[in-house]
Amino acid sequence: MLQIDVNSANTSEVTVVVNGELDMSGAARLRETFTSLLNGGKTRAVGLDLRGLSFIDSTGIGTLVVAQRICAEVGVRMQLIGVSPFAARVLSVTGVMEALAGQQR
User: Fold this and answer.
1) Average pLDDT along the chain, 105 residues, taken 10 residues at a time
2) From the candidate CATH numbers 2.40.240.10, 3.40.190.10, 3.40.50.11540, 3.30.750.24, the one assigned to the domain spanning 2-101
3) CA within 20 to 30 Å of 17's CA: 1, 2, 10, 94, which one?
């Protein structure tokens, strides 16, 4: 089961906290979250907290990559705040960690 929480530091900076399993069913919910944030037009920075991620499959990985790409295209900075050891291993092995971690804060 995937849990997604959005915490706002202010109107332009948000943290998306992802806990649980990011698989095909959860990926759709994460896409909806990013779509909502980006369509609002006020978000300028998204911190992605994956410390509570216990599982991620190829659909989840693809969702993260696409979210990062779309954020870049619309001028929103997305960066990893933290990542669970499991997710770090999967993202590293697949070559995705470098793209997502660009400027970790």
Assistant:
1) 92 94 95 93 93 96 94 93 93 89 51
2) 3.30.750.24
3) 94
